[in-house]
Amino acid sequence: MPRIFTYIAHKAGVADDSAAELAAAAQKIDATESPIAILTGWGSDLDAACNSLRALYAEIWKVANESLAYPNAELVRQALVAVLPPGSVLLVPHDHFGLDLSPGLSIKTNSCFVSDVVDIEGLQGTALKVVRQEFGGQLSTHVRCDISSGAVITIRPGAFKPQESAPVVGRVADKSSEIGSLSARRRYLETVVAEAGDVDIAKQTVLVSVGRGIQEQGNVAIAQELADAMGAAVSCSRPVVDAKWMPKSRQVGTSGKTVKPKVYLACGISGAFQHLAGIKGNPFIVAINKNPKAPIFQVADVGIVADILEFLPELTNKIREVRAGKTTAAHAS
Amino acid sequence: MQFWLGQWKHPRYPTAGILHILIFAGFILLASRAFAVLVLGVTDNFVFPTFSGRLGHTYGIVRDYAATVVFLCMVIAATRRLVFRPARYAVPAKFGKAHTADAIFLLALIAILMLADSLFEASKAAANLQQQQPVEFLAVLSLPWMLKSALSSTPIPVLQNVHLGSYFLHEITFFFLLCYRPFGIQFHVETSLFSIYFSKLDREALKPVRWGVPDERIDEVKSLGVKTFEDFTWKHMLDFYSCADCGRCSDQCPANAVGRPLSPRFLTIKARDYVFRHYPVLGSATNSKPLIGELYSEDEIWSCTTCGACEQECPLLVEYIDKIVDLRRGMMDDGNVPQSIQKPLKALESRGNPYGKLGKKRADWTKSEEFRKACNVKIADGNGVNTLFFVDSITSYDDRIQSIGRATAKILDHFGENFGILGPEEKDSGHEVRRFGEETLFMALREHNVEAIQSCAVRIIVTADPHAYNALKHDYKDVPPVEHISQLISREVKAGKIKFNPIKNEMDVYTYHDPCYLGRHNHIYDEPRNVLDAVPGLKRVEMSRCRERSFCCGGGGLMLFYEPKEDQRIGVRRVQMAAEAGANVIVTACPFCMVNIEDAIKVAGMEGKMTAIDLAELVDQQIARDN
Amino acid sequence: MEILVCVKRVPDTSENEIQLNSSGTGIETDDLVYSINEPDNYAVEEALQIVSKVGGKVTVVTIGGEDDEEVLRREMAMGAHHGVLISDQAFSGSDGRSLAAILKAFVQKAHYDLILCGVQADDGAAQVGGMLAAMLDYPFASLVNSIEVADVEKLKVSREIEGGNKEIHEIDLPCVLSIQTGINEPRYVGMRGIRQVASVPIPTLGPADLDIDPRTVGKGAAKVGRVDYFIPAFGKGAEMLQGKREDIVDRLVELVAAKGGLN
After folding, report:
1. How far apart are the first and last CA of chain A?
2. Of the candidates C31, C79, C190, which has its C-beta nearest B358's C-beta?
3. C190 touches chain B (CB under 8 A)
């Protein structure tokens, strides 16, 4: 049976949420195997992160090197190639770092590669059957991969729910000496933080979010009016930013902001994973879309098939009425 | 002749118009006088061969009054420029400094000419009077007459100096003006005859990519459109020289009115200044640079809705639409197209409609159960259908506009027309594709549609879409004659073949908005009005800007996808005009006008106070059917 | 600078509902319109902008069949100087790794300073770029949204990471970059442009031209393969509100208010 490893990212000494998700995914590959967590980095932050996983993982490999202080995929790849036993299965989150690291890693470890996996059906001999999505989430596919010489698999964040399991007391193994010197022809310089817009959508409790269905820049005002009536803010999905109808600071998604509202109105948004990944905290999601088959209806709590350009103004009017009614009632009593 | 000699367009702006007509008339009349004065310097008492005797004296009187009137006009014109400052003369900061100084200078020169000439005559007459010589009769109360009285007691030697002095003043001013003429707006005096004579007669047919190159050989043309100044045709360059900087075009331009970067007047003036700078009379031409980016901004050129209001106003018949289309062709050729337009263009190429919807669903608007009971729309495929109803893309695919299609079909049905639609075989007419400069895609769409139309052997085409109408009539060749639904209904109304139920709500006040491509471009103004007036109880008012002065709704076709920078939506401005006219229902006869106006009603917050309805929808609603 | 852009022809999905075909092995292709994978188009535009500044040529390459040539022609109409089609029966059914191996063989026949591809295509695998780089031993950066040519030997690139932030790297040439949409504004390519390149020859290369052993690529060599397509059983999904518009609006306002949606 192949050894299963999970690559865990960490920040400021705290391991990423994906640690538990990847453990759950590993379980589905082989319930008998206990996955090993691998962390790369440097200094006390790395140590703290490794320690924080001892309740979740039986074995944790620490790979410390000064050049790995900032996770540069080119360097991390070299380190992992040195440390991973041949034929291992490595699980990595499907995010910007996973995209950077994994395909090349699969070549260097001579193992097969499957990305953005949303479900794992199981292992039969050396054939692993997984589920992926294509065409922006409109269709799913079963994919079979031959893991006889190992695999690198990226896992869609949020696709695997962390499992309850018997508590463990993990031990941290220091593998830093096994990696040798690292050098890469790509050097990290700095991170430029996105300009703060006028509104910080990450702090909003109620969001009216618009997607391609808003059709043109002029119509964003319709969403703004609804937001005003609700005391909310307007956010959007990537296509709206690409079309330059709203600034980047309003984008919800993997390459935008992560939001944690109580209520989220997805208006004219199809529900592509990259967008949904930006919504955390399990808010009450209302989806309004012309297309009854839009993937958003799978994740929303309430759905309405309608043209947002017609529906939103009606909703706005009703909310205004209701609020006006409330105020009068309040005064009356 | 009508436009040049008759000054036909001038009175559209009354004050300036009348002034100009007077000045123009004066100029014509005084032309021979100017020549005579010149020769008088050589031989005294020169008269033109036939001008002695009665004719000469009559001319003298006319001349006196002409000079007076022109002089007065100069004073009035100068006062207007300096004191009243009509808005259209203003030069927005981004276009440079004001042209007032130039204008006043020119007015002053002409005034001096008149004054000098009158003084010349007056001083001579005064001298003759004093010396009891025969006096050349001066018209009563004319300028020379008044000056003569003023000079009547001036000593002879002084008069002699005045006489000579005014002569030289006249000649110097005259020759200075002659040399100065090509360098400013006064050049229009010379070029106007040519610019008007050579102006395009058939305004509705767009200029081909290159005159003399037939469509089949368009691939041989190396570069499409206008990219540098030299790419303009000679007629367009003549236009640049002929512009009189009057600003009437920009005054009427809807894009200009809402603060878009476009101002037709400055399109021409900037080009004129460019040509002065780079092609001086003495010296060599400096290298040509691309126009877009240097002289014009991209948004300036994309902002135009091709409504034609500018061309309608221009007294010199300067052409604008062709220039804009040529500039767009150049940008298309270079791939310099806003992303918002690229998407519908790609969709038009792959699916025949700008929405990217499936071609095979183009006739789905006919398929609802309810509609089919009322009217069964056939597909025309050589099965003996007489009339083709050309639906075009927006009416086929837009949920709201499909109702115009259905209403039109029901109307045709009511009149017993044997009609059909092309259905999934129909592709977009390509009207805006062509006007946005994508000539090749337009030709592909046209080729496809012409083939489809010819194969169903119809005798006449009807459409409810003025853009499709304009395309089928002027851009397409070898297709049957085309009619707009309003013309058909109007004919039936006149023939007494249609009865309307009285309008339900007598309190509604209707106003008809003339769509640019039905009205201004194709002169169909009365038919829709006849139809409306035939509905009992329908109260109709006219907006102050109506008929050929109608104010564009904002544009159709690809224009719906373009995102302009503007202070206000064009449609909102129009809806306000309707409200100002006292109307609460706007009737229009174009699907794009409908989209823009309904949108504008929402944006302007006038829902509930203003509604819009299409002519076909209204007719369908009001027809008295015997069932 | 010699730039190679790897492109793919994909179905245009934004307006269409992708339908499963009757056997579940693929999608209905009758009504589909194909075009270039959007991120690849951004990559070609970026390449063209780079060579217009520093000189050089842009080559576009795709692995496929006759139908895929149209995408090469479109990019050539946009300005790419050369187009190459890599095509052979032996290549069909290749998994990502084989595709990268084929491209590697092609790259090694010439010299390219920079290799670009789109960040991902219709299957969302996002793999070929990274694999190609590893096979060639070139440095790699994914999700690139800005490229600056620092000098003949290196580039300064920016990667798109979460929160709209940008990670700035210096990367040595030759290298492979995967390009994210929004990096630039691609120029328009009209029918005329395509007609003008309609007769430009596009060489087709097969295993022999690339010194590839057919057994190492194609269906037989694939370690990863699609078994089928399916529509997942809908989970509970959303509670769909039905009925008259006013009733829907009323109900929605109730629900939203109850969840704390009215501030």
Report:
1. 72
2. C31
3. yes
> 3-class DSSP state for residue A212?
helix
Contact A185 C139 (CB under 8 A): yes
For A264-319, write each residue's pLDDT tens digit. 999 999 888 788 888 988 899 999 998 888 889 888 999 999 989 889 999 998 99
Same domain, B137 and B277: no
pLDDT the model gives residue A105:
97
The whole-number pLDDT of residue A333 equals 46
**Residue C187 is part of a domain; what is its CATH number?**
3.40.50.620
Flag whether B192 is in a domain: no
User: CA B608, B614, B617, B622: dihedral to nearest 10 degrees?
Assistant: 80
Q: Do B441 and B514 fall within a single domain?
A: no
User: Is residue C158 assigned to a domain?
Assistant: yes
- Of A108-112, A288-292, B280-284, C79-83, the poorest mean pLDDT is in B280-284
Q: Are residues B42 and B17 in the same domain?
A: yes
Give contacts of A188 with chain C, Cβ < 8 Å. Answer: 167-169
Place of tokens 């501030």: C263
**Contact with chain C for residue B340, Cβ under 8 A:** no
Q: Please report, to the nearest 10 degrees, the dihedral formed by the alpha carbons of residues C63, C66, C72, C74 taken in order.
A: -150
Classify A120 as helix, strand or coil: strand
B441: closest CA of chain C, how far (Å): 6
The share of chain C scoring above pLDDT 90, in percent, equals: 65
* A242 Cα to chain B: minimum distance (Å): 10
Task: Give the mean pLDDT of chain C.
Answer: 91
So what's the ipTM on this one? 0.89
From chain A, the residues in CB contact with B339 under 8 A are: 243
Residue at B343 is within a domain: no
Structure token digits, residue C228:
């089928």
Locate the chain C residue with the closest alpha carbon to B346: C190
Residue A267 phi, psi (nearest 5): -105, 115
Task: State which H helix or E strand residue C210 sits in.
Answer: helix C207-210
Q: Quick one: B505 and B484 in the same domain?
A: no
**Interhelix angle B234-242/B188-197, nearest 10 degrees:** 140
How many Å apart are CA B344 and CA B351, to the nearest integer?
A: 10
CATH architecture of the domain covering A4-179: 3-Layer(aba) Sandwich (3.40)
Establish if C112 belongs to a structural domain. yes
| Domain covering A201-332, topology | Rossmann fold (3.40.50)
Which domain does C164 fall in, by range? 2-221
**This prediction's pTM:** 0.86
Low-confidence ranges of chain A (pLDDT < 70): 1, 326-333
Q: Alpha-carbon distance B345 to B404, whole Å?
A: 24
Q: Are residues B569 and B594 in the same domain?
A: yes
Q: Kindly state whether residues B521 and B601 are assigned to the same domain.
A: yes
Contact list in A for residue B569 (CB cut-off 8 A) is 218
Residue C43 lies in a domain: yes
If one compares A19 and B45, the residue with the highest pLDDT of the two is: A19
- Domain count of the fold of chain B: 4
Is C236 contained in some domain?
A: no
Domain assignment of residue B327, given as a range: 202-333
State the chains in contact with B (3 or more Cβ–Cβ pairs under 8 Å).
A, C
* CATH classification at residue B293: 1.10.1060
The Cα of B342 is separated from the nearest Cα of chain C by a number of Å equal to 6
Give the HSE-up count for residue A174: Cα atoms under 13 Å, Cβ half-sphere: 8
The alpha carbon of residue B101 is apart from the nearest alpha carbon of chain A, in Å, by 41
Domain assignment present for residue B338? The answer is no
The per-residue pLDDT for range C185-234, each reduced to its tens digit, is: 999 998 888 988 999 999 999 999 999 999 889 988 899 998 888 887 76
* CB < 8 Å to C15, chain B: 347, 355-357
pLDDT digit string, tens, across residues C39-69? 999 999 999 999 999 999 999 999 999 999 9
Same domain, B522 and B565: yes
Give the Cα separation of B251 and B271 in Å (integer). Answer: 19
